[in-house]
Amino acid sequence: MMLLLPESAMLLFSVVFLFLSLAGRKETHFFWARAMALAGFVLSLLGVSGEGNLFFGAYHVDLFSQIFKALLSAGFAFVVFMFGSDEEVDSAYLPDFFMFLSFSTLGLMMMASAVELISIVISLEISSFSLYAIVPLRKSQTKLQLEASVKYLFFGAVSTGVMLFGMGYLYGMAGSTFLADIIRALPEFIFQPVGVLALTLTMIGFFFKLSLFPMHFWAPDIYEGASNTTTTFIATVPKIAAVALLIRIAMLTPSLPPQLTGILIILAALSMTAGNLAGLVQKDVKRLLAYSGIAHAGYLMLGIISLNSGGGAAAIFYITIYLFMNLGGFYVITLLSKNGDNVLVEDLAGLSKRSPLLAVTLAVSAFSLAGIPPTGGFTGKFFLFVSAFKEGYLAIVIIGAVNTVISIFYYLNLVRMSYSKEPGAFPPIQMLFHEKALCYALIFMILYMGLVPFGLLERFNGAF
């Protein structure tokens, strides 16, 4: 049971809200949701040291998977604490919302431990179908949310189909669905076109979760159309599990074939460039953060292509700080928009006078997203660039550095609006105790990972 502590806590959360939904209870349930989410995070920390194999070897529990489950649980808990208003989701659907949110996180946790193709697909679909269900659950803007849900379903189905096609090739080459058997069979095919094609197509499903170019087209519209809390979850938590599985697949062979490495480098460069250039002209803050996420997916690829030089630990470190700095940005949006509407860049005007704490939270998050010291975003990018440089990928490091400079313009524009503009008719923002506590916690984590990174990095290195 200790091996499944994080999953058990998330399953209990899901079942409780399933029965509340079946009973037709319309209370907001915020207190119990937060209490159970916090308890689940504590249990996930207690289960970090667990190791073992379950379900005839299809489910592998080790430090690598448990670290990712702790991150998933932390992301889930933060999102639940951030969600404090029934203006975003109708109170009649709140039990369903919490149920699907927890079921999605459960599927993502299962992905982190899945070492067999069928179990990977099942875990991915548990998470995906839950997200398809919550995207339309927005109280306002009916047409926009329905358009977002249809696009998310369509692109998700296409990416899953392509991924299954690649897995079919892997099964055909290895004669087994277990990753360990594929490892043994892959060297015979890895430098042939069919081997490169199989791995590339298999990775497509996870590129979709990461919103990596060219599987990024869905992100801006879904971010804009879904509720603020739903967008916060989609923008952060699923990407953690996607990184976990991409690292596992990249570990199938001692070194990635040059053809596959070349493909990943090209996709990383295109993702960084497309995301940052599009981010320069965005007026809606959620769409801006969507393009920001596309760019950051490109940065993460530097860790995947340089696993042998510490890139794996650097990728885990970066997805960790990515979680906190994105939560900070989206939390500012959530608190600015008490009625659930989208926030425009111009709506940030005078934020420092309306709420100094929110302005600081936005500034620290934006500095970290831009990679400015002493934030964790700078440290994370530094580790990724060093890993890629050690592997000899100088060109993509230069492209990453140039893109970092480009991104500074639109990130700092958010800070400029909040500090150099007058608030006009916007009223002061009143914050509750737990809202202030969340802001302080996010600021602390972003600065802590920037100033004292090596303890975490050493812990992440121990997972390989």
Task: Please render the helix and strand layout as text.
Layout: H1 5-22, H2 30-46, E1 52-54, E2 59-61, H3 63-82, H4 94-113, H5 117-134, H6 142-174, H7 179-189, H8 193-210, H9 218-225, H10 228-250, H11 258-279, H12 285-304, H13 311-336, H14 351-354, H15 356-370, H16 376-390, H17 394-420, H18 433-451, H19 454-461
Antiparallel strand pairs: 1-2
List keywords for this structure.
single chain, two-stranded antiparallel ribbon, 19 helices, globular, mainly alpha, 2 strands, 464 residues
Describe the structure.
By secondary structure, the protein is mainly alpha-helical. Helices cover 74% and strands 1% of the residues. It has helices at residues 5-22, 30-46, 63-82, 94-113, 117-134, 142-174, 179-189, 193-210, 218-225, 228-250, 258-279, 285-304, 311-336, 351-354, 356-370, 376-390, 394-420, 433-451, 454-461; strands at residues 52-54, 59-61. A hairpin with a 4-residue loop joins strand 1 and strand 2. Helix 13 packs antiparallel against helix 15.
**Major sheet: order of its strands?**
1-2
Average predicted confidence as pLDDT:
85
Structural class: mainly alpha
State the order of secondary-structure elements, H for helix, E for strand.
HHEEHHHHHHHHHHHHHHHHH
> What about the largest sheet?
2 strands, antiparallel
* Total helical elements: 19
